[in-house]
Amino acid sequence: MAGREALLAELRGVVGARHVLDDEDVRAGYEVDWTRRWRGEALAVVRPGTTAEVAGVVSACAGARVAVVPQGGNTGLVGGSVPAGGEVVVSLRRLVDVGPVDPLSGQVTAGAGVVLADLQAQLAPAGRELAVDLAARSSATVGGLVATNAGGLRVLRHGTMRHQVVGLEAVLADGSVVSRLGGLAKDATGYDLSSLLVGSEGTLGVVTAARLRLVPTRPERVTALLAVRSVADAVAVAAELRDRLDSLDVAELVVGPTLALVARQRGLVPPFAVVPPAALLVECGSRESAPVDELAEAVLGCGAMVEDAAVSEHPSERARLWQHREEITEALQAAGPPRKLDVSLPLAGLATFADDVVVRVAASFPGATCHLFGHVLDGNLHVNVLGAPEGDGEAVDALVLGLVAAAGGSIGAEHGIGRAKVGWLHLSRSPAELAAFRSVKGALDPAGILNPGVLLPAPGATSS
């Protein structure tokens, strides 16, 4: 108890008493993730407001040998940003500075706590935007996007978060600060620590700011919801549109049963007389006029694979089309809760996997249904299983992730490994890779205080 009080006193000295939250009720919102599945009791929640304060917090915790859990918007789905028990949660939500847009390089520096939607709003007057976009834009933060190497809706054109990061500022496990925010396009002076930290889920350092590459906005947009005959046709149509249309930004797959579910749960009316086996939401953008004719011609070129289409350039109608994709998560929660898995497959095997997983889930878990949607040209599927008995969650994971591994895919496409998938990481990484991971972790965090149990087993733990 004396050690705990001494650490809390030191932390108050670093960030101020009002930013050290040790009351049980006040801490509660920081101790559970969005899925409500992952929760734990923190020793305290600390809210630093500068990189120097983050460094002071980490240094104090390192001295007390107390682990820290970095946390941004806490929108993750795999338990990567909540405590297991006894850690200090370092909330980065006060790190909200956004620098001026550099018009020559097309870059900006943003704090780790900046919410994605707020960043986009601040960039809009400069005619620039961050290329990463996702449904959780109103709560996801820059630091979280970096920590998980977030993907989202526009990877097909611009890549994942890693491709947007020019450099990072971060606090290492001993409280020292590394900073590469100069924005150099070329820098061949050794190891790229920034790239190493992207996707590391807070296990190698606490990201406090990012230098980000921006793209010009393309405000004139046209959206289409296409009815297709199968998942295989959805993949083929999306690839055809990508090759024909430089303006294509988005290609989202929703299978028919999921389209029907979201319509039923959210009171939506699909723009088709009959719910198709699969649907493809596509969107094109331009800086001048919406490329309506260009998209229509490309869709017609796909022939019989596209059975019906709803197309609009009007904002209100486009928003209605988007509801069939962006309200899926809420619809699943209302019908669930679902068992959620985020995976990626080689494009050549995506359709076969999609067909197989639906059949195998239904056969293995009577009464369960499998709902699929995702970023089709990234090979990224969100697999959601409804109706499986609560005690069968691990068995569901084993079935789905085993099928992913057999198909040559990845068990974690864009949400990371967190705590949820630590025991399955061997399905996607070889023994040599896992040994290298442990070596890197041991070099940068020898005491194991940074997000223990996330991505890799905590010291002394075992994993299958």
Overview of this protein structure:
- The chain is 34% helix and 20% strand.
- The chain contains 16 helices and 17 strands.
- The chain is globular.
- The two termini are 35 Å apart.
- The mean pLDDT is 96.
Task: List the keywords.
Alpha-Beta Plaits; alpha+beta; Uridine Diphospho-n-acetylenolpyruvylglucosamine Reductase, domain 2; 464 residues; 7-stranded antiparallel beta sheet; Uridine Diphospho-n-acetylenolpyruvylglucosamine Reductase, domain 3; 4-stranded mixed beta sheet
In short:
The protein has 16 helices and 17 strands. The chain has 464 residues and is of the alpha+beta class.
What topology emerges from the helices and strands here?
Layout: H1 2-15, E1 20-21, H2 24-27, E2 44-46, H3 51-64, E3 68-71, E4 88-91, E5 107-111, H4 116-123, E6 128-129, H5 142-147, H6 155-158, H7 161-164, E7 165-171, E8 177-179, H8 193-197, E9 206-213, E10 215-216, E11 220-228, H9 231-244, E12 248-255, H10 256-266, E13 278-286, H11 292-300, E14 306-312, H12 315-326, H13 328-335, E15 339-344, H14 347-364, E16 369-375, E17 380-386, H15 393-406, H16 431-444
Parallel strand pairs: 2-4, 3-4
Antiparallel strand pairs: 1-2, 5-9, 6-10, 7-8, 7-9, 11-13, 11-14, 12-13, 12-16, 15-17, 16-17
Helix pairs in contact: 1-3, 10-13, 14-15
